[in-house]
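# step 3/5: fold
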Amino acid sequence: MKVILQEPVDRLGNVGDVVNVANGYARNYLIPTGLAIEANEGNVKYLAHHQRVLEKKRARLQAKGEELRKRIEAVQLEFARKVGEKGKLFGSVTNKDIADALLERGIEVDRRKIELTEPVKSTGTFAAVVALQPGIAAEISFKVVNENPEEEVEAAESVAEAAAGENADAVEESGAAPEPAAAEAVEAAGEEE
């Protein structure tokens, strides 16, 4: 079935495009939601007559999309989460979390349009792509940090102490000098205090 798009539709087209889609997709989704109208003879004539209006609408949507892209890319997001050993999160950061954080900053984005490049299950810096409109996507980077920074220091100290303890046991057994890596870890843990 041929339809005329009234709004931009992902992977299908932009405003005013005449596209061929499955009958069920057109009748059950595109037409009832107002995203498209049937491309019959009267609607095609209407489209030809109102092409200038549609071109203005395209330009307005393009400008809004570019402005929104700039606003999103200027935002710095940081998520504080509970972290276990080795920086692994209890849970993860999802596209819904990103959409909620953007909404708090006055930027409304559908969570389904946010694509994470990788699952976020540890601390660090990550990136996500926000598909705003066909041809316009914003890349946003965000940080995931431990909600209790003193736990990071304690974890580093316990790892350093464990390494030092293992190294000291090995020294007692072999009678050799301590390994430099373990000594550096102990010194680093001492400096963090």
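# step 4/5: annotate
Confidence is low (pLDDT under 50) at residues 188-193.
# step 5/5: archive (pending)
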